[in-house]
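In full, the data.
>
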Amino acid sequence: MAERFSDLQMLKLVEIYRDHECLWNVTSALYKNHDARQSAYKQIAEKLNISGISDKDIPKKIKNLRSSYYQELKKN
């Protein structure tokens, strides 16, 4: 797994993630489709083009991003 993402890399991850509704929109028909989700993770990894990161690392990064987001919400 790659080291910490820079702010620019995280922003790029979020922008690419937003384009793949099957990963976050529970009302999407593809949300429960494992193959569609795996394909989306592969596409995100390819578009990020960061050495040392694979499609298996993307769900972990997304989970970490969500955790950080919710921690910040709790602070306010």
